[in-house]
Amino acid sequence: MVKLTFLITALLCTVSSAFVVTSPTRSYSSLSSAAQLADEVDTVGNNVAVKSLLTKVQEQRLLSKVAASGLLSKAQAAGISLSKIEPLLALAAEYPDILILVEASGPDLLKILPTVVDLAPGALPLLATAIATPPAVIQGAGIGALLAAAAAVLLIPDDSVTNVAFQTLAVGVMVPVAGASLAGAAILSKLTK
Known about the structure:
Elements: H1 2-17, H2 29-40, H3 48-59, H4 62-69, H5 71-77, H6 82-94, H7 96-104, H8 106-132, H9 135-155, H10 161-191
């Protein structure tokens, strides 16, 4: 009896959808995609966001600053070379889902890259120091940051809004620092082997 009820209900829904007034739909997809494409591409066919990013890199002389910082020579002294990065490319080839994620994040990544280019000159000395630092020290800093976050939660009392805000701030700062340190140490240890 239950199956018959479901069948009758399905038939009534199907029949009733035939009496719904449909509005005429026009296809604006070709016009909107053409307008959107005009915003993303210049007259030659270059991606406008990439072109402005490369212009910004050139204006800031970012590659000259990388060379002047000694980052490349410190990387070579630490044992990092393109041949060390090659296994990471093989790993990406082994797991094609990684490449799909990278490709899908392309438009979102293009929005972030100008900020990265602005911050890069100030970060170059930090990167040069990080490459020269043994991975075990960076890993220890990551573990220390996790312990500091745990200590902030355990030692700061929960008796006021201000103290809870301090706990939240400490965890909000220390956990990303710990994650970046641990991930950086793992990558650096793989590259320097």
